[in-house]
């Protein structure tokens, strides 16, 4: 079959029309593509201009409005579809807020489409190598910045979602007044914060904002300059500092802790490891939960003269209570172990036991200088109770084994005591001591440790065997001392103690009483000694120092006959009845040494014996290693009156000087 001429014509017409349509379509497409490229180029140019010229100011303005304080963002360093990086930026301090931040660079992550179509920046901000400075105000607040709810302010809506920290540094400056203000007067605790700054490095983590920016969620780690690691997780309400925080620390400085947390004492030294949960609601005291281990801890308690040092052990926190579990510490030279509770609201409930400590170390701890040397070991049971601002330490201290007071061995000694840091006064009650030789010493006393340190003790000695005491001090035998009674007063400053002993020995061979004063320099004064001797009286005053002693004796009507040997007198034709009327009168000075005890010399100041109608004065008696030499002045003595039978010539008065030498072996007065 062959095509007709009309069919061919229609086919050519169709081809021509198709070519024309394609040509028109291509030209339109090229034009549209050109327009699209122009629009895209304009959009890229506009976006680039927006990023480099408008984004930083708009973001800074948005953050300024969100934080209600100036924010200065640096120029744009880089940009991607996920975020933008700004150069060096800062949040400067203001006239009313000293806090500031300096940042090496700021990385801001955001949703590009939300930015372009909604002009809304939902920001994840990362501070790279920031330096942050926070200063606590006098109301206890660390952050006074008020974060505005999302959407406030400019044409660019800025919502801060997360704030990240990378390799940051942080300085905190606590305020003692602010630390105290946190307590809201709910506790008598007085903050011991010193106001020293705390520094941290390697600060990493983030803060998330939610509930219209009114709550902060933290997850931050840092390295304290004075420690190893600190982690803080939890939530804070910036408006009122309501907090729920979990704090983990490794090798943290105790001083940093006492600067941050209101405590009734200072912690100038020590390390801590632990895990704590902090809960704080405005108007209430902070609550702590968890456990802390401490080492080499020093605690300075107000009005206590010395710090507690070398503290170590486990400490448990339960709300307002601090629970000690066999914690160890040292006060002065005395170590002890303590367990119990320190509660900010209910006070102290602690029990402890000291180590066995030497008397010398106790004296060092109390800065106490005793008038006589004391050697021995002591141990005490301790009990600390009372309000947090007025605790009372009480207990019982006793000797361990035998103690030595000068030369006197003490079998047992103990006392009850109580100490109030508020007054600095230590009171001792029920003092009881039992010497090895027998007898008993009881009494009470006080030591004022602060302001004007003073010491005052009143003791009573009863039934003390004087002869045994005399043997301890090498007093030659011959005279019976018997039982000694007395009162002992110890007064003065702790390092200048004076001891006064009023004593009596009523059953001695010659009943005697007197006063002995031991001065701070261990110079001993003997005063008002009165002895009943052979029907007369001897009054003595004297002193002892550096192993040498001196007595000044005033004698009155001291009979001579009791000191003489009756048998010897009869054999020598002596008129005993006449001698009964003879007596020793006058003043004599006696000197000697105490180690060993011996008399060196007796010097008479007009003293002598009335005999035979005259007197025999005794100017001097010298004692030497070989014996005794006495020098006598005889005035008007009629020997005829002294002898039962005598020549007439002896009835005349006799005067002159006479020296008598007696070997040591025959040196007893009765032999002479």
Characterise this structure.
This protein has 672 residues and is an alpha+beta fold. The protein has nine helices and 34 strands. The protein has a 34-stranded mixed β-sheet that branches. Strand 1 and strand 2 form a beta hairpin. The longest helix is centred in the first third of the chain and has 63 residues. About 3% of the residues have low confidence.
Task: Note poorly predicted spans.
Answer: 33-44, 185-189
**What is the 3D shape?**
rod-shaped
- How many strand elements? 34
Which radius of gyration do the C-alpha atoms yield? Answer: 50 Å
Termini separation comes to 192 Å
Number of helices: 9
Mean pLDDT: 82
Strand content: over 45%
Oligomeric state of the chains in view = single chain
User: Given the helix and strand composition, which structural class is it?
Assistant: alpha+beta
Largest sheet: 34 strands, mixed
What portion of residues is helical? 10-25%
Concise structural overview:
By secondary structure, this protein is α+β, with helices and mostly antiparallel strands.
Question: Which characteristics define this entry?
Answer:
alpha+beta, 34-stranded mixed β-sheet
What is the strand and helix layout of this fold?
Elements: H1 5-67, E1 76-80, E2 83-86, E3 89-91, E4 100-109, H2 112-118, E5 120-135, E6 157-173, H3 176-181, E7 198-210, E8 215-224, E9 229-237, E10 242-253, H4 254-260, E11 266-280, E12 287-300, E13 308-319, E14 321-331, E15 334-343, E16 347-354, E17 357-358, H5 359-366, E18 374-387, E19 390-405, E20 408-420, E21 425-435, E22 440-448, E23 454-465, H6 466-472, E24 483-493, E25 496-505, E26 512-518, E27 524-533, E28 536-545, E29 548-559, H7 566-571, H8 576-579, E30 583-594, E31 597-611, E32 614-624, E33 627-637, H9 639-642, E34 654-663
